[in-house]
Specification:
mainly alpha
Amino acid sequence: MTDSLISRMGAALLTVAALVGLIAALYEYLTPLTGVTGTLGALIVVVACGLLALAGLILMVASSGRGFWRTLTVLGIVGTFTAALFLHAWIVAGTMVAALVGVLLDMGLARFRDHDRHQSGALPS
């Protein structure tokens, strides 16, 4: 696999997990008898999942400022995970765990790629 394909795997996992979380959160928000139908908390989780999907797309195409976007994304994931636990939206909480794995994968691949470049002499000491 090429470096560009590998570097986008984590962001793609983040995007897919956020979209699945968005669908699950919409179900919780719109379906009667879920216990959180029409509540502000469920609506906030829907919006947060949409923003996390957008962050995943930004991480796929961004070449600079990736650390900033990763930091905001991790904070969003932690907040959405916490809200999902309070709402008893277990599927959304699970998708946030998968999204966090995607961000960590994106961070780790970037660090290992930079470490390999440093070892080969492509980056200055």
